[in-house]
Amino acid sequence: MSIPPPATSTTSADVALEHLLATPQHFSFDAAMAVLEQVAGNRPLSDVIRFHTPAGLATPTSDIVSVDALPDGTFRVVTGFGGLTGHDGVLPRPYGALVDEQHRARSNALSAFLDMLAQRPRVQFAEAGTKYTARSIAGSDTLENSERPIAHALFALMGFTSRNEALRAGINPSYLLYFSGLIATRPRSAERLRTLLEEWTGAPVTINQFSGHWTGVPADQQSRLPGAGAGQFCQLGIDTVIGAKMWDMNARIEIRIGPLSLASYRSFLPQGSCHELLTCLVRTFIDDDVECVVRLGLKQAEIPPLQHDAIRLGADSWLPQPSNRFTDAFDAIIPVAQRV
């Protein structure tokens, strides 16, 4: 019921590098450079990467054709663009034909010389790509996640002016950043709320958008038959309501979570360790003017027997049931309080 801690930067860099070396064609140029820059650490890209141009005039199907790790700690990167020769080379075609001819003669002297001339512009292009992207800002190690410039932009997209406002709402800013893509998207939908809660709880979640409940009708709006006094709201099939309450299908949303284990179930109950965060996440996603309840489910195998102990009636206690009960218990309904 909690987001796993992010992997260390070293572990993340190693895993990303393994993917890059194995499937370089799946990476865009900027993404590949970001991975290699992270591996390089404090070394400039010019000391880590050696760019090369593929032979021939065929158009590569990806930005990165191949990436090879060399024994001296550098990387040989073959890119599908930016060379002096090749399908988009700036030199006349005869130069490309001459390079191909020398390759067939097993001589790389000319292509190596041309790659050396193109090395500096390619490095500058790579550095510009890693500098002016959100990825480079988010990947900075000098600031805490919620203090980075990209975090301020994400908070604004979610409707928060700052990290401190998120803290006042009762939510760890890291949770908001993790779910920023779902919270910032408009219009907000039940499917996105379901995805958010399933990711956080690790349990099945269903949302009934038309749960409905009884709504009180003010005395001055109740139906009265014509008589000694003036009648009102008494047209059958149009505005007549019998009684002081009416059933409103649009008045309430019900969030059904579970079935859960007994420990997880109790953590979502009021005074449980996860109840406040659940309430804050739901109210961040749903406006306060919409009534919302959470229906918690407990796995049938974990329904506790009735005990004369500290139990909460209507929450985690059930009357003895037949031993052949095969249904999970979805009996606890908890109102989601409005934000203060």
TrEMBL record:
Domain of life per record: Bacteria
InterPro entries from the UniProt entry: T6SS_TssG-like
Name of protein: Uncharacterized protein
Species of provenance: Neoasaia chiangmaiensis
